[in-house]
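Why show two proteins at once? Because comparison is the fastest way to build intuition. When a single record is shown, students tend to memorize it. When two are placed side by side, the eye starts asking what differs. So, the first record is below.
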Amino acid sequence: MSYFAGIDIGSTAIKAAVVDDAGALVGTHIAPTGSSFHKNAMETFETLLARHGITRDAVKFITATGYGRKLFKEADDSISEITANAIGAWEAGKAFGGVRTIINIGGQDSKAIQIDVNGNVSNFAMNDKCAAGTGRFLDVAARNLEIDLEELGDYHFGGNGTPLTINSTCAVFAESEIIGLLAKGHGKEEIVAGIHYSIARRTVRLAKRVGIEDRVYFDGGPALNKGLVAALQDELGRELVIPQEPQTTTAFGAAMLARSQFLAEA
């Protein structure tokens, strides 16, 4: 049996995925990027192989993606996260009847990607300024509210009133705004809901720039936040397709591309 790997080295997390020679997903692994990204990327990769009893020699091709892709010298090739994300969403979306629009929110940027009927990227838009509407934005908010990041979803549904309006889109300025709202006596629940709707409105505007087609696939770590999901669905006016492990779509896409490249060159 031959295997093919994709490694997505992001700003906050490293995601690795392995597929077999039939293109079936064998497994994934996620670990923090940390400051020693190469060491941590290798450990992430090796942990995934060990967990599934795969030897390094059995992995015939590795494709790296993400911010750190050029520095991962063990990879046979590298690819942009836009392309890897599109391939992963296209493949994973088949189980949901197919997808044509992707919303990805990562640690430091957010993206909207449109793919054509053949699964190729036809348009995309990215926002990476001031960490606006990103995982970093949510990290800052959770820290200022003194709650765990994983609790944001529960807090979203805990309020009774209208979500507050959060005007700041930059993570730095939002920090001051959140502190100010707390000082005025607003509850954490209404602030959290306001943050989610602020991100949702910004993300939907991004998606409209590329065009919203058919089902919308939402991936990246923040897709695990059920409050943000609810706000996005409300602003979009449609349900989102969310995979079971939304953080690993891009690594899966890189692994699928690794398989395709190896077979094409064989």
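Second record. Ask yourself what differs from the first in the token line.
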Amino acid sequence: MTDLLVCAALGIEARALKTDGLRVERVGMGLRRAEEFARRERAFDVLAVAGFGGATDGCLKPGDLVVADEVRQGGAVIACPWADTVAFALEQHLILEPEAEAEADAHAHAHGAARRVPAVVTGPIATIEHVASSDLLTRLAGQGVTTVDMESFPLVATARGRPFTVVRVVVDTPDHPLVRPSTLRAGLTARKRLRAVGVVLRHWATALEHV
């Protein structure tokens, strides 16, 4: 059986991701904690990093999902060759099992939102040291970065030839920054989306046994 390790920064993310048989470990928030976790050399066959992220521009909305095709930190880049496979599996799960989204949708409709199924996209994710300023987000968006986080790069650097993926659920965007009250609503929706991510990651890792 494939030993899948899922890394999440926060306890709320780890609890949302955890499904039957899924090994989820809490890393702690921020680049320094992620680097410390990476140095401990966990055993795994397949690695996933999942949790919340911030979009760099208004093309993505809270609740949308981003699967990294690259993870960047400064001038360093790690390519993620399994991005399309994971993104396709997420799309299929969200389409074929809409009941998993029913509660989130009902909440969204109650607040005037019209979207039924979240977008699932692939693109570069940048790991940064601090909460991003609007100027930094604008600059990263100009470089093609879709989303930012503060943990992924040092974690996926430990994969060393083993399959890995990074999935982020958008919580904040330049139009919906973290300090607004709407962030709480976006966070609740994102937490529900992470439950779907946990299911898909488990199925993806199992399928790798037959590749």
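One difference worth noting in the second protein: Strands lie at 4-8, 23-26, 46-55, 65-73, 76-79, 120-127, 147-149, 164-172.
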